[in-house]
UniProtKB/TrEMBL annotation:
This is Peptidoglycan/xylan/chitin deacetylase, PgdA/CDA1 family. Residues 68-245 form the NodB homology domain. It comes from the Bacteria. One of its GO terms (molecular function) is hydrolase activity, acting on carbon-nitrogen (but not peptide) bonds. It comes from Aquimarina amphilecti.
Amino acid sequence: MLIRNFVNIVFIVAGIVMITAISFNKLSVWSLIVLVFCWVLITTYGVLNIKAEYFLKSLNNNPNIKEKKVAITFDDGPDLNTLKILEVLDKYKVKGTFFCIGKQIETHPDIAKEIIKRNHVIGNHTHTHDKFIDIYSTNRFINEIEDADIAIQKISKKKPLLFRPPYGITNPNIARAVKKTGHTVIGWNKRSFDTTIPSEKVILKRITNNLKNGDVILLHDTKLITLSVLEQLLLFLQSNNYTTVTIDELFSIQAYA
């Protein structure tokens, strides 16, 4: 049972009990208001935190990995900066997983082909990554996923099976869309915040602090600061005997159909 279903059942039962008590003047109506507020808070947390697996199942890390293996993932490309990211990965003989936006692939098809050529993995990150995409209807979100699949297939000749929701946001419409398209949802448990934090040192510390076997690291190949952080991260992993693998390797799943 998804956490959402369990939470809803608990709150519905609690609500019925409270309404009954209020009708007999045993409780104040404020008790019901507090209950509803708590439900809103929990649901909001579930929407914003993919690791909560509130609306759908996602692979955020693999704690069963015994070897010192981690996965580095990149969102929002391909971008001109992606070429520099690829050079750094080549330098350290490391493979990454790139969750690409369909429109970005259409804008930079040669860079997308370069990702494939260098044996990295490409996953689906929707077609537009619109800032209001989290309120799209189920059908519109299905179109977002399928259009991005088409863009990826054009350059890879393979249908991607890995999907990461924009911003890591999930909701019932996204859950229904992913169930329809059949993708495996990939989250993360090491968020760098390289899109908002201006300090390389702080970003690197966020990633490396308490790093464990099977962790999934989130970076963005569209950011210049990520380039510097990536090289420092790879040096850290190398010195601490970590191996970097792609998402499909980390979870022993298929990246493409």
